[in-house]
Amino acid sequence: MRALRYDGKAPYLEEVPAPTAGPGQVVLEVTGAGLCHSDLAVMSRPPQDLPYDLPITLGHEAVGVVVDVGAGVRGLSGGEEVAVYGPWGCGACRSCLAGAENHCPYARAAGILPPGLGADGALADYLLVDHPRHLVPLGGLDPVRAAPLTDAGLTSYHAVRSALPGLPPDGTVLVIGIGGLGHVAVQILRALSAARIVAVDLAADKLDLALRCGADSALFGDDTVPEQVRELTGGAGADVVLDFVATDATLRTAAHSLRPGGEISVVGVGSGRLPVAVNLVPLGATVRTPYWGTRSDLVDVLGLARAGRITVEVEEYPLEEALLAYERLERGQVRGRAVVTP
Ligand code: NAD
Ligand code: ZN
Ligand code: ZN
């Protein structure tokens, strides 16, 4: 089969043997695989700093059709279309049993790594999935628009759900970075909260997208944002800031835009630092670093899509053009999410 591999230098397309399902495993024919900015972060790191061996097949956002089930797999039949839960855990600890495999403290030491981020991923004709519990039926969703729900959607939903208790209906939430994740986060916020949504980006088309996704205001991301947020909120500041970029500049904007007792959710994996000390962040502030989401979060996010409350804006590419799509993502040219349909 064809696979987009990464060897520590650059991604390349290669013929590799198609996987077969061992006991308890499932093989999917990939029908949609999203490209995430985290892939670029991985490829910008020295290979020796990665917590897994290379080469691997990239792609950690996936939907596919079941084509092979291993011995002992029950309740799944060939031909079913499913979304893949990516942050695989040990399956047995307290976090995993609660569905929060994204918080499993044992997976890495046990050699259990997410597809595309350690295990072979979805930018290929077929994907091997370790266990059927990682699969959620698509229930009629379009596979191309559904693939990003497994990360851009799931991570955004998890971050929003975690921050919602601190976001009153007449409150304000600042969303920084209206890319693959941010444009879904705005829609999730619109669906779940009456709060004022203020979007921030550096590109005019992303600001337009934010407004179409339900944001109340869209601001160019310079150092006047905190002042503008204060004006919009009668001097109070935002109750919640979701930072999908996380450079020094955006984290400073987050801290300066927040009200006392507010929450900063650092979702982006930019290389910025947020100094946390009295007088550096508002009094009583909470800083959260959400990672991906829980298994039930994925069920919820697919439900929001099925209810028509969130629609991922997608650019579709064949596998042969995945490199071009990564280049566009790097240059900030992708509107919404780039999805490969092998
Ligand atoms: P993306 O490239 O699709 O979107 C990033 C957006 O941020 C773009 O619209 C860009 O114009 C905007 N932007 C860049 N610099 C900015 C600035 N200084 N101010 C305002 N806007 C700015 O990226 P994505 O795939 O949506 O990922 C967003 C971030 O989230 C990345 O850092 C990614 O690695 C990270 N991520 C984290 C998790 C997690 O579990 N925590 C999961 C997925 C992705
Ligand atoms: Zn990702
Ligand atoms: Zn576990």
Can you walk through the features of this model?
This protein has 342 residues and is an alpha/beta fold. It has helices at 37-43, 94-97, 143-146, 152-163, 180-192, 204-212, 225-232, 248-257, 295-306, 322-330, and strands at 2-6, 11-15, 26-35, 56-57, 61-69, 81-84, 126-129, 135-137, 172-176, 196-201, 217-220, 238-243, 258-266, 286-288, 314-317, 337-340. The strands form 3 sheets. Strands 3, 5, 6, 7, 8, 15 and 16 form a 7-stranded mixed sheet that branches. A hairpin with a 4-residue loop joins strand 1 (2-6) and strand 2. It is globular, with a radius of gyration of 20 Å. The chain binds nicotinamide-adenine-dinucleotide and zinc ion (2 copies). One zinc ion is lined by residues 89-90, 93, 95-96, 104, 106-107. It catalyses: a secondary alcohol + NAD(+) = a ketone + NADH + H(+); a primary alcohol + NAD(+) = an aldehyde + NADH + H(+). Keywords: Metal-binding, Oxidoreductase, Zinc.
Separation, N- and C-terminal Cα atoms: 10 Å
Uncertain stretches: none
The helix/strand series, from N terminus to C terminus, equals EEEHEEEHEEHHEHEHEHEHEEHEHE
How many runs of DSSP E, i.e. beta strands?
A: 16
Per the CATH scheme, the topology name of the largest domain is: Quinone Oxidoreductase, Chain A, domain 1
Overall structural domain count:
2
CATH architecture of the largest domain: Alpha-Beta Complex
The major beta sheet can be summarized as: 7 strands, mixed
CATH superfamily of the largest domain: Medium-chain alcohol dehydrogenases, catalytic domain
- The helix content, as a percent range, equals 25-40%
User: Beta-strand level of the residues, as a percent range?
Assistant: 15-25%
Approximate shape: globular
Name the assembly state: single chain
How many helix segments? 10
- Just give the CATH class of the largest domain: Alpha Beta
Q: Quickly give the structural class.
A: alpha/beta
- As a whole number of angstroms, the C-alpha radius of gyration is 20 Å
Small-molecule components bound = nicotinamide-adenine-dinucleotide, zinc ion
Give the rounded overall mean pLDDT: 97
